[in-house]
Structure formats: structure tokens, C-alpha cells
Write a structure and sequence with these properties.
Layout (H helix, E strand, L loop, with lengths): L10 E5 L8 H14 L4 E5 L5 H5 L9 H6 L4 H4 L1 E2 L5 E4 L8 H6 L7 H6 L11 E5 L6 H9 L2 E7 L8 H14 L5 E8 L6 H14 L12 H5 L7 H4 L4 H21 L1
Parallel strand pairs: 1-5, 1-6, 2-4, 2-5, 6-7
Antiparallel strand pairs: 3-4
The protein binds adenosine-5'-triphosphate and magnesium ion.
Adenosine-5'-triphosphate binds next to helix 1 and helix 10.
Length: 267
Amino acid sequence: MSDPTRPAGPKIIAIANQKGGVGKTTTTINLGAALCEMGHRVLVVDLDPQGNASTGLGVDDRPYTTYDLLLDDVDLSQVILPTGTENLSLIPATVDLSSADIELFSNEKRSFLLHDSLRQKGIDAFRFDVILIDCPPSLNLLTVNAMVAAHSVLVPLQSEFFALEGLSQLMLTIREVRQSANPDLRIEGVVMTMYDARNNLSQQVEADARANLGDLVFRTVIPRNVRVSEAPSYALPVLAYDGASKGAAAYRALAQELLAKNEKRAA
Ligand SMILES: Nc1ncnc2c1ncn2[C@@H]1O[C@H](COP(=O)(O)OP(=O)(O)OP(=O)(O)O)[C@@H](O)[C@H]1O
Ligand SMILES: [Mg+2]
């Protein structure tokens, strides 16, 4: 993904929203799979102690995890694992990561550990085009690490009442990270998830989001689709589980829109 404001190396996108269950992990997995389908090399970093991205991608054996990368200085080559999806790699997480938030606190470089791991020269050897970081449902030090490491933040917004409520807190955190550690951090965009076109509420939330956030909101909307929710139990992205489903089509469209946005920015 070319972007003149960014030196060579993978584009790093943090997928964040402190609200739980809004589609962060689903978007990480399926946007990642869609980018791979289009020929890009993608790394998913599971930064959530729940380990949902790792489970959803079928990686049950996790000898080394994000915890080891951040706190035990284990080398990238040991923590990066292949997944069942071609060109999609993963740094998995386990519940171990839940103590990291506290352990990081006494570390002088506490906000920069993921940055230093992912922005090191050694990452070039893996030839990733994109790194997607699946954040936990909190604005804790793990999420701050993701925002310091990233070039941009992508925000999934569930098409539900109260969806917009937490956004100001999220935007404030992004602003603080810009001021303190990562002045170039952009907002990649906001994507409406679990959208039900027959539901007035979904339409209302979408209208509010577009009125408040304008072009930040992706044109592509991810519909509520049962195939999307079934796919993780088969340890597959929805694109592999049911490539003809509406959910798969929506994530392909999101990947395309994201690439087009980045190309336009680069032009
Ligand atoms: N488009 C969709 N259609 C149907 N179900 C969906 C869709 N997107 C997500 N879900 C389901 O909603 C639930 C929450 O999604 P997901 O785990 O991606 O959210 P999250 O923001 O990562 O949650 P957490 O905050 O716990 O990390 C999951 O059961 C998932 O399968
Ligand atoms: Mg999640």
C-alpha cells in the first residue's frame, strides 16, 4: 500500500474501539483475508488476551505470543505463525496478555514496546504489506501500544444505539497519542458493522455517524450476516467459509475501498 508520507515497510493499522463486541476481531480477520485474496501479504497481531483472532484463524498451538514479543524480547521469527489462509500470518495471544497491562506499567518504554517490535528493520524480511492489530475492548496500555505502533486507526462501529457514545473518548485517546508519541497517527476510517438495512435503528445510527464524521465513515457497510458469525467456529475467515455470502462480499468491498483511499492519498 503506497503512501508517500510513510517510509517503506508495511502499513500498520490498529483496529480499535473500547466498546466490546462491536466487530473488531471480525473486521481484523476478514479485512485481512480480503487483502490477502487481493495479493497482499498480511500480518494479524492479536493484542487481546481473549485471543479471539488467534482462535478465529485456527491457531490453537501458541508456543510464543504477543506477550513474549512485548515483555520477553522473543524474536519476530519465533512469534510469527502461518495460518490456514495463504499470505496471512499471525502473532497469537493467550490469556497471559491480561497481566501485561500491569507489567507494562513499571516499564520505562511501556507505550513503545509494540512500536519497537513492529517498526524494527527485521520486519522487512517478512515482506508484509499490511499489519492489522486487533485491540482489546479497552483504552488500556495495550491499545495505546497499538496506537503508538500504528500509522492509522480503523474503528468498527456497531449499528446500535449508543454506538457513537464512546467515540469521543476514543478520539481523545488518539489525540493524546498524537501529542505524546505518534504525531503522524491518522484515522483510517470508521466502518459500520452488523448493519441491518431493514432496521430503522441501523439507518439512524448510520445517518448520525455520517453527519458527525463525514468522509471518515467508509461507504462500505458490513451487514449483519449469520455466515460471518459462524465462520470463527470453523476457524476460517468468512471469505473461506462462505465466499459467496454477503458478509464476504462486504469485507472484499471494504478492502477495496481502503486500498483506493490509500492510493488516492498517495497520488
Ligand atoms: N457482520 C456480522 N454479522 C453477524 N455477526 C457478527 C458480525 N460481525 C461480528 N459478529 C459477531 O458479533 C460478535 C462480536 O464480534 P467481534 O468478536 O468481532 O467483536 P469485538 O469488538 O472483537 O469484541 P471484543 O470487544 O470482545 O474483542 C461475535 O460473535 C461475532 O461473530
Ligand atoms: Mg475482539
